[in-house]
Write a structure and sequence with these properties.
By secondary structure, the protein is an alpha+beta fold. The chain has one domain: 434 Repressor (Amino-terminal Domain), CATH 1.10.260. The protein contains five helices and four strands, in the order E-E-E-H-H-H-H-H-E. A hairpin with a 5-residue loop joins strand 2 and strand 3. Helix 1 packs across helix 5, helix 2 crosses helix 4 and helix 2 crosses helix 5. The mean pLDDT is about 95.
Length: about 140
């Protein structure tokens, strides 16, 4: 199957390393991952697996920090694919508590942090490709 550029719909894609970047809680996380560039329009593209590996690696980096703020927790929760309600329900935590932490960007303690940390660690350890995340 020929991969087409999502921008111009041409089959002029060549392999190259692409830089992915996201900014959370005042810090910028970036990594170079395998991707494609379109010779026709110059657009960069990455596959779903590389994007997931990047997001999971950023989540791991956030969870390894001594302090986890609500905005970072929300990123980790969403990366793992859990809604606020599902996370609260599966971990016997009132959904309002999670909403308050995320919206106020408050420090997330062990009772709430622990389950997502274990889940992200497990998923991260299963990755075959782990991007090297730099923080600025």
């Amino acid at each position: 199957m020929i991969k087409l550029c999502s921008g111009c719909r041409q089959a002029d894609l060549k392999r190259k390393m692409v830089t992915l970047t996201t900014t959370l809680v005042g810090k910028t996380y970036s990594a170079r991952v395998p991707g494609f560039i379109c010779d026709n329009c110059g657009a960069d593209e990455v596959g779903d697996y590389e994007l997931y590996a990047f997001e999971l690696s950023v989540a791991k980096k956030l969870l390894d920090a001594p302090e986890l703020l609500g905005q970072a927790f929300r990123y980790c929760r969403r990366t793992y694919g859990l809604s606020r309600h599902n996370y609260a329900h599966h971990n016997s935590i009132p959904p309002e508590e999670i909403r308050r932490l995320e919206e106020n960007n408050a420090t997330v303690g062990g009772r709430i942090r622990g389950p997502i940390m274990r889940s992200i660690d497990e998923a991260y350890n299963k990755l075959g490709y782990k991007p090297d995340i730099s923080v600025a």
